[in-house]
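Case study 2.
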Amino acid sequence: MEISSTNNSIYSAVSTSQTVSNTQNTSSSFNTLVNTQNQDTTVTTPKTSRIVNFLEKFNKLNSLSPTDEKIFRDLLSDDKLTKEEVKTLSFEQIERIRDLIFPGSLTEEEKNSMPVVQVVGVDLLATRITGNKQFNEALFNTTLDLSTEDADRLIGEVHNNLGQLFTGKELRATFQYKDCYLVNPWEYKDIDVDFSKFIKDVKSHHEAIIAKHKGDDEIKKQFQDIVDVYDVLEKNYNQMLSKTKYA
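Prediction:
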């Protein structure tokens, strides 16, 4: 009888252990299933950028082709436009996205609603610095080729030199005097000028000073830095002229 009692006790213990284990396994499987289902049904709502919302609200995207609209929506989805992103666009697309970010005119409601887009490493306004599209494209392409520091230097010097040409002032580098911007950029926007000669004149002027200068090497370096960025502009402008000639 004692043996039988012992066997029954062992059987009971094993049976109870198996029941508990099965119950735990079932519970664990159910919890896993619930967690998996919860993960599967979690939906992440994409964040719409402020500038895209603005463009939609005021129908600013209507004039774009479906291709440009998709590209611009993607590029502006984070309310930012970088130099690397701009490099993926044609010049015509750059002009169009520029006009979305920096429109020529806005209604009062639009002015109060339009968000700021962070443009990083590139000056989109350089695309309309003059009324000559070839020069504008050459200048802008040059800024994409240069470092941010050199691009800023070139744009500053071009503004300065065009202002001097427009007002008939003596050609000088911006670092030679404080008030280097003689007129507002829009005043010389439609200036009638031979841009090949304009570029050569600036380079020749500065190179002559470098050749004659005696003394502070830092002054020569500042002039040389300007000549160097104008060299790249000249190359790009000549390429633009050749492209147009054989188009």
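Confidence is low (pLDDT under 50) at residues 1-30.
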